[in-house]
Amino acid sequence: MMWLTLGGGFLATLSTVPAPTAECQVVITIPAAYAHLVVPQPPGQESVALSRSPGTREVKRVITLPAEACARLGHPATTGRDGTPTKPAPGRSHPPHPWLSTPKLERITTVKPTQPPAPERPAPSTKRTPRPTRGETAASAALARLGTPFSWGGGAPSGPTRGIGRGANTIGFDCSGLTLYAWSKAGVTLGHYTGTQFRQGRRVALSDLRKGDLVFFGGGNGDPTHVGLYLGNGIMIHAPKTGDVVKKTQFLKSSYYRSTYRGAVRPG
What's the pTM value of the predicted model, to 2 decimals? Predict the structure, then answer.
């Protein structure tokens, strides 16, 4: 028999009774006022007896414990894993166990479900987005100006401006004004003249064109008369002429632009 302290000066006693399986049964005797702390048993499986103190009742309850708990209580299972009966070693039928030195009586009416482990968060990606090239930056700047009116002499690093001559009444870009604006966003300064831009960079073959390269047209053997900014797949963005707007053109499939093509330059 063992004693449990419940608090408030009350004691409970524990004793074990034989069980026909690997489990064991524990009889716990507690004051009736603490009976709600233990799982209620079906009618007929509990008894009430008067304690030594008049006017106070004690309640006995039978609790079934699994084999592992029986071993911890010093009460070995009555059968082994193979089903054969086991006997306690002589002189060690109910040895004391350190766990019993500080018993804890807990409500065992329900068992809380085990919380599933929190899902692991994927490690942050260390892959960096590649920075755009200067040509890609220039192309993006030009595309942002689609639909801007053509203005002869118009355009500056800051954006569309009022032109000169026949463009004096229009705020917009001419062809070289658009390309100098676009490349200024990539940190490259170009002159506001098609012939000047034709010499401001490295010449590249038609088969090696990259986004942002300048493509030139017209002028015979002299300075080119028109410039656009290459976007890829044979398409350029440019400011064509008075009365038109900044637009995209498939120049490699255009009989006019294909026949007047003069070459390409990569600024910077």
Answer: 0.55
Q: Give per-residue burial for 94-121: e unless 16+ CB within 10 Å, then b.
A: eeeeeeeeeeeeeeeeeeeeeeeeeeee
Span 89-102, pLDDT tens digits = 454 444 444 433 33
Six-digit token pair at 108?
A: 């065992």
Catalytic residue among 24, 70, 75, 238: 238
Q: How many other C-beta atoms are found inside a 10 Å radius of the C-beta of residue 55?
A: 6
| Structure tokens belonging to residue 6 | 């419940």
CB 44 within 8 A of CB 51: no
Q: Which of 24, 94, 175, 192 is catalytic?
A: 175
Kindly list the distances between the CA atom of residue 74 and the CA atoms of 78, 83, 92, 96, in Å, as whole numbers in the listed order.
Answer: 12, 20, 8, 6
Cα–Cα–Cα angle for 172, 244, 146, nearest 5°?
A: 60
Is 94 among the residues known to form the active site? no
Tell me which residue has tokens 């929190």: 118
Q: Which two tokens stand for residue 79?
A: 């059968």
Residue 24 annotated among the catalytic residues of the structure = no
Is 70 an annotated catalytic residue?
Answer: no
Give yes or no for a contact between 44 and 36, defined as CB atoms under 8 angstroms apart: no
pLDDT band of residue 86 (cuts 50, 70, 90) is low
Q: pLDDT-based confidence at 147, cuts 50/70/90?
A: very high
Q: What is the mean pLDDT of residues 156-179?
A: 97
- pLDDT above 70 for 36: no
Q: What is the DSSP letter of 96?
A: -
